[in-house]
Amino acid sequence: MSAFTLDVEKGLHPPSPLVAKFPSSPQDSSISLLSPALSRATTKGAGGQDSAVTLLAAPPTPDAKDSSRTLVQPTPPKEIPPLPLTKTKSKTSRMIRFRLWFNTYRKFYTLTVTLNFIGLVLAATGKWQYPRQYTGAFVLGNLQCAILMRNELFGRFLYLIVNTLFAKWPPLWFRLGCTSTLQHLGGIHSGCATAGAAWLIFRIVLIFIDYRHFPAVILTAGVVTTVAIFISLASALPWVREAHHNIFEGYHRLVGWFGLLSTWWFVVLGDSYNATTHSWHWQADGSIVRQQDFWFVIVMSIFVILPWVTVRKVPVVVEIPSPKVAIIRFERGMQQGLLSRISRGGLRGGLLEYHAFGTISKGRQSGEHYLICGVQGDFTQSLVDHPPTHLWTRQLKFAGVSNTSKLYKRGIRVCTGTGLGAALSTCLQSPDWYLIWMGSNQEKTFGKTISALIASLPPSQYTLWDSKERGGRPDVMKLLKETYISWGAEVVFITSNMGGNTEMMEGCKKEGIPAFGTLWDF
């Protein structure tokens, strides 16, 4: 029978709650952490009276030392069912909420839009002539940067460079900055798209001011391009994306493609017309190729098309452990921290419905990876009601925040429900990452495949909290803070719903625990 070792100062009550430390010898530790069971123990206080304390099983610290001052036998869970931790509520200050709201995403967006706005004002007032002469370069440069920030290949390249050069050795603040920058590249995407649209309006205004010098076809091309880009931007507004996701997918993608085609039309016409002589120059003298607008559009088109070249129809095996979840098995092992876009294909699905899910794999050598698809809409419901034998997917996966786990010596991956899909691979592929998974009726809901993957981890590397078995949710921050300290973690990655993410991010910010939460901007 193994025992907990409790460090108690002589003649003093220990602080509550206590974190039980495991012996450093592997032979002395056989406690399963399938869930952080609570046990009642008795110790002597300063007056010699018995004092009941609550012990919370915690993962081993990297430098834990043996201690034999007080040994407390854990209560078997079958005799006394573990109770949920008491949840303590505390009000979060406005400053903490503001710091979380004004995250790196919004900082990037603000910086990008502000710099472009300054240039726009200088150009509009005539104090900077270059943008007035080459407005198209500012329009297309911003739009190209916006597309680049959302390109899978470019993103994977950035993650590879950062993970290769800065793994574990730089100061923690620098590594946290790298993760934050990579996670919030969407701020540059949104900022450059907004700025590009603003420069486009400026370009159209300049043309209409001198409309007598331009043919109607150029004016028409400019207006059509502007309308298309603004519809694409409007469909990506947060409230549209969250409340009407299919509308976002359709308009942002299809109208965006139309906007790219109309941009080609506008650029070729504009670069082929001489407003001074009021004449077209269609000669094959290379004049268009020498224009920077032309090359901006070339690069934009390449980065738009490239991800679609990797789309393939692949065989899948679908497991339906419950009406709430579909577990999809794909061939091919994956590195951790990647997300996969899938579609059922067809004219509508192949163009409009590519949904992203975290991949679960033991590594590239495993030969397989899994997606956990929780039922939340028509697409995921169809996976349960009519399991497919094949799905369309982009073979070029895009990286998520977990991909930067290589930067840290030790960390915690906390998730709720189907968020396990984005979290489990990190812990499967690295013994330095600890898994905390909270959910309801976990094994019955998610099935034997997922349970077997978790069971392949050492018991000291994970905590499962089944709210149905335990009668409620834990005090998440108490559990997270104690695990963070005992595991010797440097950072916490969170994948949860909006409410759970907010609760944990606010709690971590309050406790000074570096944490990165869930994003809904892709």
UniProtKB/TrEMBL annotation:
It comes from the Eukaryota. Residues 74-84 have a biased composition (Pro residues). Residues 1-86 are annotated as: Disordered. Keywords: Membrane, Transmembrane, Transmembrane helix. Residues 23-36 have a biased composition (Low complexity). The chain crosses the membrane at residues 108-128, 157-176, 188-209, 216-234, 254-273, 294-311. This is Non-ribosomal peptide synthetase. The lineage of its organism: Eukaryota, Fungi, Dikarya, Basidiomycota, Agaricomycotina.
